[in-house]
């Protein structure tokens, strides 16, 4: 109860970061969202298929869209399973009971009362991750709590709340200040005035506090996130409890309408969506939700904008490039490396910086995205975009080909640039790491039948 409940949520998520080889072997594939899917506390479930090695076709089942860890949500139902009326009723009750103990409205009221308290009476329970009003102190006496919560602390909830990073199902990796500032400057320089922050609480928070300081550079942000703890700090116009894997607004029609209005204000001009989803795959589910948000924006019929898309920044690891482009062909991957505070491996340090694999994908013209020259990015006049310092323009490919920031080399046999550590293997007939085991590709992919990849990497399916 309390903390666990408030913090409920998460996402189909890998532990830590994964490469394209990542989860692979799992043999679990996502089928497209289906109307009439049964619901768990996290909204409509997604339809998956389990593909066992050697088996012709796996059995399909519904599972929670948001939680990969069964401990967080154990919803499961075979697609062809008959569910009795009694079980349906029990499930509905279960879903109702597994909503947060306070509504958003209630939390807004609590906040109003909280800020009226003198500093000495402002407590935050670290165990329940909850602002406490004096009448509630007693219930939390044996919990760890913080005292004297300042206005500044209330304005940076992402610092006050602990990041939900250890949970398998939630991956809260917060932007390093440098990257967050870069994003906000970029947004302002591009002339945007409204930001739909989808899973970017720290960016939202930076916009909120900047806005209250500088009236003339007013940028507004609406945060959509599954982490309900944030409803303690923001009004219903600033935060919607939202699941980005099934486009589900927990607050119902009113919340959806808040989002729609936000997008469509000023005929939908000057609005940009920024999202930094958990990296555990399910690109297909994310893409489907983002397309629905884009469609919401498009509803504002404005002349001469028929083919335009809502501007978007999708922050995701570079090895998902082909998957993202599959769903959003208009997107380009930027070279900018996004850094995080609480991810030791990819944290930016003054010395010995580890490269972050996380990039910005956008449907804005790449030439508009100015990357900081101080950090070594330079403009390639041929490609008409900013690239990493190590990213050399290849004459043969006629583009700056590096994906990871290192200098790549051209292989004439593969007719493309490859990672510096790779060499051309004659038995595989492609470039690979020197110590790779040559692959016998006589058998095609189990899913699509094509050669060159295994089932676990089949581009026609999403993988968890
Ligand atoms: N770098 C961002 C945070 C990204 S971490 C920042 O600093 O602002 C991923 C975010 O997505 C977290 O805030 C997490 O709560 C949210 N999230 C995880 N699963 C989600 C889901 N199913 N729907 C909506 N948001 C989700
Ligand atoms: Zn669930
Ligand atoms: Zn170039
Ligand atoms: Zn090349
Ligand atoms: Zn080669």
TrEMBL record:
<keyword id="KW-0489">Methyltransferase</keyword>
<dbReference type="GO" id="GO:0005730">
    <property type="term" value="C:nucleolus"/>
</dbReference>
<keyword id="KW-0949">S-adenosyl-L-methionine</keyword>
<feature type="domain" description="CCHC-type">
    <location>
        <begin position="445"/>
        <end position="460"/>
    </location>
</feature>
<dbReference type="GO" id="GO:0005737">
    <property type="term" value="C:cytoplasm"/>
</dbReference>
<dbReference type="InterPro" id="IPR002052">
    <property type="entry name" value="DNA_methylase_N6_adenine_CS"/>
</dbReference>
<dbReference type="InterPro" id="IPR039846">
    <property type="entry name" value="ZCCHC4"/>
</dbReference>
<dbReference type="Pfam" id="PF10237">
    <property type="entry name" value="N6-adenineMlase"/>
</dbReference>
<dbReference type="GO" id="GO:0003676">
    <property type="term" value="F:nucleic acid binding"/>
</dbReference>
<keyword id="KW-0479">Metal-binding</keyword>
<keyword id="KW-0963">Cytoplasm</keyword>
<dbReference type="InterPro" id="IPR001878">
    <property type="entry name" value="Znf_CCHC"/>
</dbReference>
<dbReference type="GO" id="GO:0008270">
    <property type="term" value="F:zinc ion binding"/>
</dbReference>
<keyword id="KW-0539">Nucleus</keyword>
<dbReference type="InterPro" id="IPR010666">
    <property type="entry name" value="Znf_GRF"/>
</dbReference>
<feature type="domain" description="GRF-type">
    <location>
        <begin position="40"/>
        <end position="82"/>
    </location>
</feature>
<protein>
    <recommendedName>
        <fullName>rRNA N(6)-adenosine-methyltransferase ZCCHC4</fullName>
    </recommendedName>
</protein>
<comment type="function">
    <text>rRNA N6-methyltransferase that specifically methylates the adenine in position 4220 of 28S rRNA. N6-methylation of adenine(4220) in 28S rRNA is required for translation.</text>
</comment>
<dbReference type="Pfam" id="PF06839">
    <property type="entry name" value="Zn_ribbon_GRF"/>
</dbReference>
<dbReference type="GO" id="GO:0008988">
    <property type="term" value="F:rRNA (adenine-N6-)-methyltransferase activity"/>
</dbReference>
<keyword id="KW-0863">Zinc-finger</keyword>
<comment type="similarity">
    <text>Belongs to the ZCCHC4 family.</text>
</comment>
<keyword id="KW-0862">Zinc</keyword>
<keyword id="KW-0808">Transferase</keyword>
<dbReference type="InterPro" id="IPR041370">
    <property type="entry name" value="Mlase_EEF1AKMT1/ZCCHC4"/>
</dbReference>
């Amino acid at each position: 109860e309390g903390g666990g409940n408030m913090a409920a949520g998460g996402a189909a998520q890998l532990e830590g970061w994964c490469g394209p080889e990542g989860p692979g072997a799992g043999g679990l594939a996502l089928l497209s969202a289906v109307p009439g899917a049964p619901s768990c506390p996290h909204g409509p479930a997604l339809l998956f298929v389990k593909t066992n090695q050697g088996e012709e076709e796996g059995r399909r089942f519904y599972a929670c869209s948001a939680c990969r860890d069964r401990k967080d949500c154990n919803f499961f139902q075979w697609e062809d399973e008959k569910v009795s009326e009694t079980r349906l009723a029990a499930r509905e009750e279960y879903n109702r009971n597994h909503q947060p103990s306070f509504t958003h409205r209630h939390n807004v009221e609590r906040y109003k009362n909280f800020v009226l308290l003198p500093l000495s009476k402002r407590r935050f329970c670290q165990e329940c991750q909850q602002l406490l009003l004096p009448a509630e102190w007693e219930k939390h006496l044996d919990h760890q709590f913080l005292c004297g919560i300042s206005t500044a602390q209330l304005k940076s909830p992402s610092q006050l709340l602990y990041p939900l990073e250890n949970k398998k199902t939630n991956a809260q990796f917060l932007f390093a200040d440098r990257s967050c500032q870069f994003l906000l400057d970029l947004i302002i320089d591009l002339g945007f005035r409204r930001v739909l922050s989808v899973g970017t609480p720290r960016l939202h928070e930076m916009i909120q506090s900047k806005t209250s300081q500088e009236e003339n550079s007013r940028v507004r942000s609406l945060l959509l996130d599954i982490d309900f703890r944030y409803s303690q700090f923001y009004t219903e116009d600033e935060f919607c409890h939202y699941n980005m894997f099934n486009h589900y607004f927990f607050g119902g029609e009113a919340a959806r309408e808040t989002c729609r209005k936000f997008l469509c204000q000023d005929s939908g001009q000057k609005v940009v969506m920024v999202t930094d989803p958990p990296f555990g795959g399910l690109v297909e589910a994310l893409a489907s939700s983002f397309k629905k948000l884009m469609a919401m924006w498009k509803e504002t019929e404005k002349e001469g904008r028929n083919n335009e898309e809502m501007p978007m920044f999708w922050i995701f690891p570079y090895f998902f490039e082909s998957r993202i482009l599959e769903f959003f062909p208009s997107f380009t991957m930027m070279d900018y490396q996004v850094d995080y505070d609480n991810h030791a491996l990819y944290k930016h340090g003054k010395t010995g910086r580890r490269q972050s694999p996380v990039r910005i994908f956008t449907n804005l013209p790449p030439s508009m995205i100015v990357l900081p020259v101080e950090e070594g990015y330079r403009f390639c006049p041929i490609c008409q975009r900013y690239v990493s310092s190590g990213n050399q323009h290849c004459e043969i490919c006629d583009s700056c080909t590096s994906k990871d920031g290192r200098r790549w080399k051209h292989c004439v046999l593969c007719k493309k640039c490859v990672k510096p550590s790779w060499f051309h293997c004659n038995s595989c007939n492609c470039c690979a790491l020197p110590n790779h085991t040559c692959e016998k590709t006589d058998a095609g992919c189990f899913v699509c039948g094509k050669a060159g990849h295994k089932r676990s990497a089949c581009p026609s399916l999403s993988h968890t």
